[in-house]
Design brief:
Helix 3 runs antiparallel to helix 4. The protein contains six helices and no strands. It folds into two domains: about 80 residues, no CATH class; about 40 residues. About 80% of the residues lie in helices and about 0% in strands. By secondary structure, the protein is an all-alpha fold. The two termini are about 55 Å apart. Pfam families: SecE. It is found in: Membrane. It comes from Moraxella porci DSM 25326. Keywords: Cell membrane, Membrane, Protein transport, Translocation, Transmembrane, Transmembrane helix, Transport.
């Protein structure tokens, strides 16, 4: 862990010393955990509205046609269900936890840009290695199964 931190510190110093003076990209100054732990009355109301919307979305096709004639059409039911689900997610997006989740997604995107992805040749080679190892272990397990079936059949 400390080696990784040292590497990151070294990379930060290198970027800071370069001519471009590029600084590391940060999305938020506040920790995602701190934002997610905040509680307010607005959050409680939005969570309750979202829960009611999601439960209602599951009950649309069963109960709504009994009380509203146009809801007998399947497309109306699908539209209302999708609308309720989207409304529920929008309510959740405006809570502190939703804000923390959006920040987490932005931070994950930044981290994905830093990943060194394997080349096509490496991917093909690793894929064949995994396929070959799977076949070998499959044959070993099959042989063990046959052996134990023989032993159990002999005992019984």
């Amino acid at each position: 862990m400390s080696d990784n931190k040292d590497n990151l510190d070294t990379q930060s110093k290198i970027t800071a010393d370069s001519k471009d003076h590029k600084q590391p990209i940060t999305v938020s100054k506040e920790s995602v955990v701190e934002v997610a732990k905040k509680r307010s009355a607005k959050d409680v109301v939005l969570w309750l509205i979202a829960i009611v919307a999601m439960i209602s979305a599951t009950l649309v096709s069963q109960y709504l046609p009994r009380y509203w004639a146009p809801a007998n059409d399947i497309w109306v039911q699908i539209g209302i269900t999708v609308g309720l689900v989207v409304f529920g997610f929008l309510c959740l997006a405006f809570t502190n936890q939703g804000t923390a989740f959006k920040t987490l997604l932005k931070d994950a995107g930044i981290e994905l840009r830093r990943v060194t992805w394997p080349s096509k040749d490496e991917t093909v080679r690793y894929t064949w290695q995994v396929i070959l190892a799977t076949i070998i272990f499959g044959v070993i397990i099959w042989l063990l199964d046959m052996f134990f079936n023989y032993i159990v059949g002999f005992v019984i």
